[in-house]
């Protein structure tokens, strides 16, 4: 089966082509194209939804053409598209495009939950090594969630953020420090020159598997205001101190979940999984505690269509389909992720 994956939930227009075969499951990623919109949104210090949708409309047809150039559009056997959660205008571009193409070519299509895509992104990198059950940490610009994964498609939500997502916290901290958008990569880079113990910031305090990062953001704002004007070294110290608190918190909660459910496999995914300190510290504790921790490669950690083609492809192989009446949905109930995903026949 040759699956075309389409992802337009936020500020990346992405198209992938994945060849899959069932029993035993085998796949080959033929194309993985991503057109970032950072240039569109950077001047505003954050994503402007209307501009995001317009850029998706401009870019998506050309990307699909490019991705299918070698194999030929007529040889695509199914389409997987992100249908939730995300910016509804952006999602609608991908969903409408996928439906029209599926209808015209008389091939099945399926709506995929963006977070289920992130969750399974590590499988694209090391499919034969990853074992179940897993504890999965999704850390992106829009979500922070811990899940227990029994097998593909069987997810139990353990806890998530009560306010800002981890990536959002990185973006907001960067904005306060005048570092631009998106903030994660630049905070990561600047932190390497800073001292993580130089600025005392409050550790988030939320019961069990919950997260909260908005207090940390406020603390940075107050402290940065007090120390103004900030020189380069102080900015680096802010980045390192902030990052350390977030990384420690994410690792502590994930390890607690792994301990509680006696899970030896951990997957960490979403844009914040690119963070170098998070990767380093997770690798360290994994070694000490004899756990296996999997990260997707950085390109598979941030938004991409390969993960959508993979998840959608597996459902399509199992005979599942979405109806042409499928709508884009901005929010999903994470506690019902596996079930909410089940497309109606
Ligand atoms: O998964 P993603 O591409 O989009 C969403 O689904 O939200 O994640 C984007 C988020 C942004 O908030 C960005 O600042 C963050 O991932 N990010 C990072 C790093 N690279 C991207 N955060 C921390 N360190 C990084 N190296
Ligand atoms: Zn994402």
Question: Would you write up a description of this structure?
Answer:
With 345 residues, the chain is of the alpha/beta class. It has 2 domains: 2-120 and 301-336, Nucleotidyltransferase, domain 5 (2-Layer Sandwich); 127-295, ATPase, nucleotide binding domain (Nucleotidyltransferase, domain 5), CATH 3.30.420.40. Helix content is 44%, strand content 20%. The chain has helices spanning 38-41, 49-67, 88-105, 114-125, 166-176, 183-191, 214-227, 232-260, 276-289, 298-301, 306-317, 337-341, and strands at 2-7, 12-21, 26-36, 78-84, 109-113, 134-139, 144-151, 154-160, 265-269, 292-294. The protein has a 5-stranded mixed sheet, sandwiched between helices. The model is unreliable at 339-345 (pLDDT under 50). Zinc ion binds next to helix 4.
> What percent of the residues sit in helical stretches (DSSP H or I)?
40-55%
Which CATH architecture of the largest domain? 2-Layer Sandwich
Q: How many independent structural domains?
A: 2
Overall radius of gyration: 20 Å
Distinct ligand kinds: 5'-O-[(R)-(carboxyoxy)(hydroxy)phosphoryl]adenosine, zinc ion
Placed side by side, the strands forming the largest sheet appear as 3-2-1-4-5
Calculate the mean pLDDT score and round it.
94
Q: Rough shape?
A: globular
Q: Which class do the helix and strand fractions yield?
A: alpha/beta
What is the CATH homology-level superfamily of the largest domain? ATPase, nucleotide binding domain
Total strand segments: 10
Determine the strand fraction and express it as a percent band: 15-25%
Strand count, sense and barrel status of the largest sheet are: 5 strands, mixed
Low-pLDDT segments, ≥5 res: 339-345
Q: What is the CATH class name of the largest domain?
A: Alpha Beta
State the order of secondary-structure elements, H for helix, E for strand: EEEHHEHEHEEEHHHHEHEHHH
How many helices in DSSP terms?
Answer: 12
CATH topology of the largest domain: Nucleotidyltransferase, domain 5
Report how far the terminal alpha carbons are from each other: 20 Å
């Amino acid at each position: 089966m040759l699956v075309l994956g389409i992802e337009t939930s936020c500020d990346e227009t992405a198209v992938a082509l994945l060849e899959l075969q069932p029993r035993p499951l085998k796949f080959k990623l033929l194309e993985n194209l991503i057109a970032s919109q950072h240039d569109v949104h950077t001047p505003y210090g954050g994503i402007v939804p209307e501009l995001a949708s317009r850029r998706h409309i401009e870019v998506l047809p050309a990307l699909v053409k490019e991705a299918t150039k070698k194999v030929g559009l007529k040889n695509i056997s199914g389409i997987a598209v992100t249908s939730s959660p995300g910016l509804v205008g952006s999602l609608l571009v991908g969903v409408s495009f996928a439906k029209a193409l599926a209808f015209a070519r008389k091939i099945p299509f399926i709506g995929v939950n963006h977070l289920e895509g992130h969750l399974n992104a590590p499988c694209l990198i090391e499919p034969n090594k990853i074992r179940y059950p897993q504890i999965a940490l999704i850390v992106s610009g829009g979500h922070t969630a811990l899940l227990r994964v029994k097998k593909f498609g069987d997810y139990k939500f353990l806890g998530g953020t009560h306010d800002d997502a981890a990536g959002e916290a990185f973006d907001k901290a960067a904005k306060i420090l005048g570092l631009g958008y998106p903030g994660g990569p630049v905070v990561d880079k600047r932190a390497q020159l800073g001292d993580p113990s130089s600025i005392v910031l409050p550790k988030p305090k939320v019961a069990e598997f919950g997260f909260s990062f908005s207090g940390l953001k406020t603390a940075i704002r107050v402290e940065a205001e007090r120390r103004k004007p900030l020189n380069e070294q102080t900015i680096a110290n802010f980045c390192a101190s902030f990052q350390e608190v977030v990384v420690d918190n994410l690792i502590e909660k994930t390890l607690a979940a792994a301990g509680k459910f006696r899970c030896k496999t951990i997957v960490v995914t979403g844009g914040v999984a690119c963070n170098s300190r998070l990767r380093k510290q997770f690798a360290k504790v994994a070694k000490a505690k004899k756990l296996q921790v999997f990260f997707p490669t950085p390109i598979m950690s941030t938004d991409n269509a390969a993960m959508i083609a993979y998840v959608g492809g597996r459902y399509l192989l199992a005979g599942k389909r979405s109806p042409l009446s499928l709508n884009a949905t901005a929010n999903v109930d994470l506690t019902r992720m596996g079930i909410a995903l089940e497309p109606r026949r």
